[in-house]
TrEMBL record:
NCBIfam families: maleylpyruvate isomerase family mycothiol-dependent enzyme, TIGR03085 family metal-binding protein. SUPFAM superfamilies: DinB/YfiT-like putative metalloenzymes. This is TIGR03085 family metal-binding protein. It comes from the Bacteria. The lineage of its organism: Bacteria, Bacillati, Actinomycetota, Actinomycetes, Streptosporangiales. InterPro entries: CHP03085, DinB/YfiT-like, Maleyloyr_isom.
Amino acid sequence: MTHARAERAALSDLLDQVGPDAPTLCTGWTTYDLAAHLVLRERRPDAMPGIGLPPLAGYTASVQRALKARHPYPELVSLVRKPGGAYKLLPILDSTVNTLEMYVHHEDVRRARPGWEPRELPEDFERLIWNRLGMTARLMLRRSPVGVVLHRLGGGVTLGGKSDGPKVEVTGRAGELLLFCFGRQQHARVDLTGDDEAIARLMSAGLGV
């Protein structure tokens, strides 16, 4: 089983377990909203552009609301559990596009609950996350007000944020660094080194794709 499929299965199990009204780390979203978002990503390509383009966000939000109105929560979770569209036919595409997405949203549900602890990820999954992060860190950190130096525990450095001015060094395992760069700074287990003001600015910045 690919890591994308494993994270999808674990996320779906957790969504079933916690129910439709549980909190997530996605601001303003319950687990019902998150399930609708994931179904939209895979099964409503007409609404996908609004995920990243603010002028189209209103249409995307309306489609997400319609999915919730049309499908009871268990039905949406069942749709999340099974890859949709091209991802069903092309496992390589599912792995390429959805591995990080499923991991981050799995943690969005896990870390919104009290008493959570970081998972020990398999080493090959850590390496995969780090390789993908090396390709996308500059994009995810493009809105950082300071320079960022990512240090992976176990080896590896990558850069992002502003090229001039103060820099903050962020150290942790690859999965934690990914969550940090995805805008989950407050819930990522990382160590920060740098000027206090620069760290405060980075911690409150709107990071992510």
